């Protein structure tokens, strides 16, 4: 006997998250730039000790 | 409420425009002073008639750092609260005018004493440099005027809340209130040093001044001052730009959260301007450096939110690929283009800020022209280009005119000119700073010291960049004059963005002012109480005033 599917159960509304791949790449680049600048000046500091 | 056809009441528009006129007059005069400064520092030009470099340096800093910003911000915010929370009441508008006149009279008094050469103390005051008392009294009027306007905005917000119990306030009104609370709390510091230290000392009632206390009170004010400039730019980015590009806001809650974080974390951080100052225990400097880095969080939240707004819009227009959405943005609309370029400049500006705030790295750049290069990226590009972009719709909205295509094209050119000028000037300042070139100093080869001779090519690049920037100032003044007096009559929209459908509902907790102001006050007390007591209890005899110009 086939299992009877309960068709009365209300379906949960699945909201589609917006695709934000470009945003992820952009903020990663931003983070990389911040770290790169900081490390560059840090090495300058070490160099001048 | 968020209907795009809503118009700011003509009487409120007049109040906002009064502020904007003063702001752009300050831009013209302060910009001219800036041009003279970079020319002097190139070593190829000397000021005529015995005018001091430090007089024009003070003129530049006060007019652009304090007057242009404060007037534009208060004018813009009056327009924004009128647009989003309804027309101002007669009483609120009256107090808005009282605030405007106090600030204007104060500016005139201050400018007078600077221009007659009695107040070349730079916009950071820097005791033991001592100005004529009129300089400090004029600036006191500017600050008091801004408080009056701030309370007028609070009253308007309170009236809206009373009429809409249990509802979330309009975003631009909420943001204006946060910014004025921030301003009020931080300007108590500068008011304290001016009223209790600088004025009695400059009038001769007391002989000596506690320099460290004065500088600490100034920087308690001076760093959040940067956020007072920046938050209105963020208002435009979060709540207006999405509408201009035809998209929606990524999240109302995220915008409010970032503003609350700025309110909490941008004040107890002034010590990162005093990292090489003797007399402050390193542990307290460390604590304030940690708090300074907390401000990175709302800044990165803003960056994420802006990228997301742009990408969501581009993808809704069919953009594909990782960065295809960039092509869908309205590049030929100056209302978008100018602020967007401002956002891009905020990336190197933020990176430089992290360097400034780190204790060891600060020793590389402290008091060098790197710092000047840094705030010409933050204030003079990110903030100012965003304000210019806002002026391109705000002024015609308030004056009942429309921007012509020719003016829009000129505004795009203006933005490009500004960017080129700033790349030359600010990059040269950053590099010269890394080589040790000092800020706040006229041209000198320091007895032909080899190190000082290394700076000269960079100083010439600064002069080239500064000259291009001055052309940018002339262009923006042409556009603003056109929009205020000559553009064709018509209706221009005051754009206010709607929130994206998938965004979460905004919780009311963001308007629990007792909670947020309470946290801010507790953090301020933790960060400042012990070191401040130490500064007073273990103070040296204090300093007499100096007039070195």
UniProtKB/TrEMBL annotation, chain A:
Superkingdom in the source lineage: Bacteria
A Pfam match: CoxIIa
InterPro entries with a match to the protein in the record: Cyt_c_oxidase_su2a
Protein's name in the database: Subunit I/II of b(O/a)3-type cytochrome C oxidase
UniProt keywords, alphabetically: Membrane, Transmembrane, Transmembrane helix
Lineage: Bacteria, Bacillati, Bacillota, Bacilli, Bacillales
Transmembrane segments: 24-45
Organism: Anoxybacillus mongoliensis
TrEMBL record, chain B:
Subcellular location: Membrane
GO process annotations (BP): aerobic respiration
Keywords: Electron transport, Heme, Iron, Membrane, Metal-binding, Respiratory chain, Transmembrane, Transmembrane helix, Transport
SUPFAM superfamilies (alphabetical): Cytochrome c oxidase subunit I-like
Record-level Gene Ontology MF annotations: cytochrome-c oxidase activity; heme binding
Alphabetical list of CDD domains matching this protein: ba3-like_Oxidase_I
Chief subcellular location: membrane
A Pfam family recorded for this sequence: COX1
Matches recorded under PROSITE patterns: COX1, COX1_CUB
Sequence intervals crossing the membrane: 20-40, 60-82, 94-116, 136-158, 170-199, 219-241, 253-271, 291-313, 334-355, 375-395, 416-436, 456-480, 515-533
Keyword Iron: yes
Domain Cytochrome oxidase subunit I profile: 1-549
Domain of life, source organism: Bacteria
Transmembrane helix keyword on record: yes
Protein's UniProt name: Cytochrome C
């Amino acid at each position: 006997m086939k299992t009877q599917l309960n068709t009365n159960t209300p379906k949960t509304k699945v909201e589609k998250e917006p695709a934000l791949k470009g945003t992820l790449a952009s903020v990663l680049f931003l983070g990389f730039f911040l770290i790169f600048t900081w490390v560059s000046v840090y090495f300058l500091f070490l160099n001048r000790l | 409420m968020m209907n795009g056809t809503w118009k700011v009441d003509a009487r409120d528009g007049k109040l906002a425009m009064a502020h904007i006129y003063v702001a752009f007059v300050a831009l013209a005069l302060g910009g001219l002073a800036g041009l003279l400064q970079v020319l002097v520092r190139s070593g190829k030009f000397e000021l005529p008639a015995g005018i001091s470099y430090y007089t024009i340096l003070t003129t530049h800093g006060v007019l652009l750092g304090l007057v242009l910003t404060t007037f534009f911000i208060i004018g813009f915010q009056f327009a924004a609260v009128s647009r989003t929370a309804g027309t101002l009441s007669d009483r609120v508008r009256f107090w808005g005018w009282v605030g405007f006149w106090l600030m204007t009279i104060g500016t005139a008094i201050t400018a007078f004493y600077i221009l007659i050469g009695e107040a070349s103390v730079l916009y950071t005051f820097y005791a033991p440099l001592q100005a004529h008392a009129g300089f400090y009294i004029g600036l006191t009027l500017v600050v008091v005027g801004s408080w009056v306007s701030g309370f007028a905005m609070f009253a308007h917000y309170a009236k809206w809340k009373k009429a809409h119990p249990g509802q979330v306030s309009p975003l631009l009104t909420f943001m204006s209130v946060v910014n004025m609370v921030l301003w009020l709390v931080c300007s108590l510091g500068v008011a304290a040093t001016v009223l209790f230290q600088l004025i009695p000392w400059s009038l001769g009632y007391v002989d000596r001044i506690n320099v460290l206390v004065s500088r600490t009170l100034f920087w308690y004010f001076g760093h959040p001052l940067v956020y007072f400039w920046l938050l209105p730019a963020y208002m435009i980015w979060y709540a207006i730009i999405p509408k201009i590009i035809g998209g929606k806001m990524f999240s109302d809650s995220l915008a409010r959260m970032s503003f609350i974080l700025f309110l909490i974390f941008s004040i107890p951080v002034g010590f990162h301007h005093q990292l090489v100052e003797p007399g402050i225990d390193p542990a307290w400097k460390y604590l304030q450096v940690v708090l300074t880095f907390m401000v990175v969080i709302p800044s990165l939240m803003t960056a994420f939110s802006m990228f997301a707004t742009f990408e969501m819009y581009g993808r809704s227009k069919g953009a594909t690929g990782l960065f295809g959405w960039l092509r869908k943005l309205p590049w030929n609309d100056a209302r978008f283009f100018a602020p967007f370029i401002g956002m891009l400049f905020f990336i190197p500006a933020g990176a430089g800020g992290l360097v400034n705030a780190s204790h060891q790295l600060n020793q590389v750049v402290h008091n060098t022209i790197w710092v000047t290069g840094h705030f010409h990226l933050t204030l003079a590009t990110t903030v100012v280009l965003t304000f210019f972009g806002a002026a391109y719709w705000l002024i015609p909205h308030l004056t009942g005119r429309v921007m012509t295509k020719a003016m829009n094209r000129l505004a795009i050119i203006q933005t490009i000119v500004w960017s080129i000028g700033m790349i030359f000037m600010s990059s040269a300042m950053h590099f010269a700073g890394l080589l040790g070139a000092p800020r706040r100093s006229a041209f000198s080869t320091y007895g032909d010291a080899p190190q000082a001779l290394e700076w000269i090519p960079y100083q010439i690049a600064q002069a080239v960049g500064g000259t291009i920037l001055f052309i940018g100032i002339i262009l923006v003044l042409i556009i603003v004059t056109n929009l205020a007096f000559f553009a064709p009559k018509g209706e221009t929209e005051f754009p206010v963005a709607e929130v994206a459908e998938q965004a979460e509902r905004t919780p009311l907790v963001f308007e629990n002012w007792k909670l947020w102001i309470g946290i801010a006050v507790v953090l301020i007390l933790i960060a400042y109480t012990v070191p401040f007591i130490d500064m007073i209890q273990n103070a040296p005899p204090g300093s007499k005033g100096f007039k070195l110009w």
